[in-house]
């Protein structure tokens, strides 16, 4: 008989660092465009697994010497290759026991605020891009809690991990919700964010009496900073586009406008174009690179949690 332990052991053996499971009932209050049953009506369990982001990939940005390492190794190459192997192993195990595994699309973070305005492809159906809220799914699978920056925190790695989600019709024992508290609302993330994008209006979800809360993110400011178009986070835009004096405090883009702007301007900024070309060779598809280095939401938060000595380190075995 297939068990939750078998799923978790399989994920870890295949290269994942963390794995948790939630029953689909925990998603009962999710809107239809972010509900597991909209994507897979027979789903009974939601499997969330993660790989750590290695601290060394931030060093080049910290020292002002290399902005490509975070983009290549903090997003692509080994990290998502390892997550892909773990996902394939989990789905293979499910099928070997007569069940199905369905990946939630990799657009989790794109749609945290709201799905894009699109027309349904068929009458009576939702528009395309149905996807789970990644951070809520991780919380409901017992892996940790969202921090005030909305970046997810685990007791093993703090804010340093990326997630994948598999829905299955196998009824698996779920994990208890995380009952600790990692985020102490110190505001280090808010102060350090060069995009001034964090710490907005309080938002929350509640499950089984446990509230998970975070501060609303300004996604337009976040994305133009992430793409390296904010001179407070990137020296390259001022060098190659000297007439573009972006004041991030006056940015009013939404996420999609900022996303498109990054693709339009990256080829005109030499270093961003270099990162884009290099990342294409490492599985990133020639996209503009992440230049901000998550200075506030990950780096400042991680430093604070490590100084408090509250992280377990995630040693396997």
Keyword list:
12 helices; two-stranded antiparallel sheet; alpha+beta; 317 residues; NADH Oxidase
Description:
Helix 1 packs antiparallel against helix 5 and helix 8 runs parallel beside helix 10. This protein has a domain of 176 residues: 3-Layer(aba) Sandwich (NADH Oxidase). The longest helix is centred in the first third of the chain and has 20 residues. About 2% of the residues have low confidence. The protein has a four-stranded antiparallel sheet, with helices on both faces. The chain has a two-stranded antiparallel ribbon with strand order 4-5. It has a two-stranded antiparallel sheet with strand order 7-8. With 317 residues, it is an alpha+beta fold. The chain is built from twelve helices and eight strands.
């Amino acid at each position: 008989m297939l068990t939750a332990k078998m799923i978790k052991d399989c994920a870890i053996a295949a290269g994942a660092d963390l794995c948790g499971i939630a029953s689909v009932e925990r998603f009962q209050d999710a809107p239809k465009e972010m509900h597991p049953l909209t994507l897979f009506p027979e789903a009974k369990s939601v499997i969330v697994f993660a790989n750590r982001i290695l601290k060394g990939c931030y060093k080049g940005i910290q020292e002002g010497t290399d902005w490509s390492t975070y983009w290549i190794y903090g997003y692509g190459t080994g990290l998502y290759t390892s997550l892909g192997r773990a996902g394939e192993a989990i789905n293979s195990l499910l099928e070997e026991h007569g069940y199905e595994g369905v990946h939630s699309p990799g657009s989790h973070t794109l749609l945290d605020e709201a799905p894009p305005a699109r027309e349904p492809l068929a009458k009576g159906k939702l528009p395309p891009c149905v996807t789970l809220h990644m951070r809520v799914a991780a919380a409901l699978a017992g892996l940790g809690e969202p921090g005030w920056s909305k970046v997810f925190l685990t007791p093993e790695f703090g804010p340093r991990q990326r997630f994948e989600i598999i829905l299955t019709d196998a009824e698996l024992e779920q994990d208890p919700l995380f009952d600790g508290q990692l985020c102490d609302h110190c505001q280090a993330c808010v102060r350090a964010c060069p995009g001034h994008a964090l710490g907005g209006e309080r938002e929350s979800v509640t499950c089984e009496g446990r509230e998970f809360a975070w501060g609303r993110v300004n996604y337009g400011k976040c994305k133009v900073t992430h793409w390296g178009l904010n001179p407070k986070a990137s020296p390259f835009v001022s060098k190659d586009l000297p007439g573009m004096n972006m004041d991030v405090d006056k940015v009013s883009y939404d996420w999609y406008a900022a996303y498109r702007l990054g693709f339009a301007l990256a080829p005109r900024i030499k270093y961003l174009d270099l990162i884009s070309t290099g990342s294409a060779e490492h599985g990133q598809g020639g996209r503009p690179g992440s230049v901000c280095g998550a200075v506030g939401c990950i780096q400042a938060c991680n430093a604070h949690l490590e100084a408090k000595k509250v992280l377990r380190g995630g040693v396997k075995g």
